[in-house]
Amino acid sequence: MKKIHTVILALIIMVCASHMNAQENAKTKYMVWEVQLTPLQLENAQKAIAAENTFYKENNHPYMNATQYTNDGYLWYSVPFTEFGDLDEMQKMMIKLYEENPERTKEIQKLFDVSYSKVGRMILESQPELSVAGEQMTSTPMGSKFRFFEKFYIKPGMWDKFQELTKTYVDLRREHGITSAFYTFYPVFGADMNVVYFIDETGNSPSEHYKLNEEQWAEFGEEGKKLWQEVLPIVQKIETHLGQIDFDLMYIPEN
């Protein structure tokens, strides 16, 4: 049982857009499982998460989850929470749920056993003041939504400066009427504590994202050039991923 709780798949990430909209003024935390997998393992992971979500729904499980994955072999499974005490309560509830349903637990575990190459976890915290919530959703989303993921490694002693520059960037997006969602997350617990995570929902595909992104920076003009020139010296490296959030693999409690 402990094994399935540890391996419940999957980083970044990260966040359900509708939940983020509702929590724009709160710093919601996310327990994130980051999974490395092959295309075949991704198919298995999707089946495993879908089966587990069905199990959760049948038992009225109170904690939501969201799944997103990239085109280069990463899957992030995240569970939002507010206080760290919630994690203890969550674990107790899951242990009880699985112990009371041993046969179902074995079935789900078998699916997870063939769905990953490597798994780790971290805790991220949303930064509403450094984010743009995007358009308010009026119904439960379906299908998937393109996302561009970035991970900035910040040089020692430059955290406050980078935070200031991120705020400038978010302000530029707002000033130029860019309404697509843009989320910023800081690590609370994990292997990398000198990083900042971004999720950008500009565009509906990689090609459209790059096109619109170029147009946006052109609109920013000299302000944008100056901003980027200030960012580069305080960043050690930048990782990027193309991917999507899968709304069909999202579990939202009914109550």
TrEMBL record:
<feature type="signal peptide">
    <location>
        <begin position="1"/>
        <end position="22"/>
    </location>
</feature>
<protein>
    <recommendedName>
        <fullName>NIPSNAP family containing protein</fullName>
    </recommendedName>
</protein>
<keyword id="KW-0732">Signal</keyword>
